Amino acid sequence: MKSAIILGAGMVGVATAVHLQQRGWSVVLLDRKEPGRETSHGNAGIIQREALRPYPMSHDWRELAKIAIGRTNDVRYRIAALPYHLGPLLCYWWHSFPARHADASAAYAQIIGCAVREHEAFIQHADAGNLIRRDGFRMLYRDRPALEAAIAAAEVLRHAYGVKFSVMTSWDLKQAEPALAEGGVGSLHWLEPWTVSDPGALVSAYANLFTRLGGNIVRGDAKSLSRSGNAGWSVITENGRMEAGAAVIALGPWSPDLLKRFGYRFPMVRKRGYHRHYVGGSGLDLPLCDAMNGYVLAPMAKGTRITTGAEFAAPGGKPDLTQLAYAEQAACKLLDLGRPVEPEPGLGTRPCMPDMLPVIGAAPRHRGLWLHFGHGHQGFTLGPTTGRLIAELMNNESPTIDPFPYRPWRY
């Protein structure tokens, strides 16, 4: 029987484990925490259908100047942390030019287009339908040019991919969300995305599916990964040493650091984000993104969740709650937010590759070592899709998606 150790029990790692287990592999899923307790837990809980183009870096000097002087809340940075990010960010900026971004978008659309379908299969088998709504989410705009630009971009996606959306006036939004104090100048309602009332619980449901299929989840340190014999891999777990014929690195933002031990250098743009729940307020029906102020309000099982934009901090740097505080102030002008649930906000790091595409495939110089990370803002959305792709590659099947754009050796 073929065997594998999956390092990382977030959405990406868990989905990979399920796909391999369904193909008859013996699989061990290793993490230092319970499944879905890192970035896979602290997101906006949206399985996106409309995000067919990855986020590029602006080339507009006015937008860059706003970021530089701290006049935008969707992106913030610490000057002392810039040396950690400058190289990958410059590469990200280079790949954001229109022609290169168009190439990345063509590849990105392949995997985003499958996301809802792949999640549906998992949700049915995991009996997790109680966590899902299929009514989309909304984007709030506060000035007319921004709304018109968003509508124009949405029309391009509708023409190219058949994406469904509706335009709402300020009055329409207030009717749909009576708790809102104001509705800006209007909004976009993306109709096809699914929303999740507890993202961590969905990952846990998929992990439970994996164990029902015969998989094994263990605690351990991914840094213990080493070669075992001529064609195998081993890790140290709480149950002792475990060996397998293959190992999959699905550690999100921690993947490049582990791979340095094996001689690989993967540049990565690490974007930190914060989240917190609030109860006792008025709440929303569907998630709402406040485009101008760079945050999302999402109704969750634990209360209304705020998730912030991107912060560039030093690795292991102390939390800076400036973004979250700004988002709270803006949100409180929209609705009665209530009181915070957690004494301290949660945070997670989004692992973004400079060319905006995940790394999926075999390590170039190590037999049996497979790489599966770098999903940026969409690991929660894409895990089951790219999990299928890497499982097909590992199982020598004809892949349902062309794997070439995501090949590890491009770096």
- The CATH architecture of the domain at 1-56 and 98-130 and 197-266 and 354-411 is 3-Layer(bba) Sandwich
The CATH superfamily of the domain at 1-56 and 98-130 and 197-266 and 354-411 appears as FAD/NAD(P)-binding domain
Spatial gap, N to C terminus: 32 Å
Taking Cα atoms only, what radius of gyration do you get, to the nearest Å? Answer: 21 Å
Number-wise, the strands total 23
Q: How much helix, percentage-wise, in residues? A: 25-40%
Q: Structural class, judged by helices and strands? A: alpha/beta
Query: How much beta, percentage-wise?
Result: 25-35%
Mean pLDDT score, rounded? Answer: 94
User: Count the helices. How many?
Assistant: 10
The CATH topology assignment of the domain at 1-56 and 98-130 and 197-266 and 354-411 is FAD/NAD(P)-binding domain
Query: What's the main sheet like?
Result: 9 strands, mixed
State the shape. globular
**pLDDT below 50 for ≥5 consecutive residues: which ranges?**
none
* CATH class call of the domain at 1-56 and 98-130 and 197-266 and 354-411: Alpha Beta
Short synopsis of the structure:
The chain is globular and about 65 Å long. The protein is 33% helix and 26% strand. The chain has helices at 11-22, 61-68, 82-95, 98-126, 144-161, 170-176, 199-212, 255-260, 322-334, 379-394, and strands at residues 3-7, 26-31, 46-47, 75-77, 132-133, 137-141, 165-168, 186-190, 194-196, 216-219, 226-228, 232-237, 240-244, 246-249, 269-280, 288-290, 295-300, 303-308, 310-312, 338-340, 346-352, 359-362, 369-373.
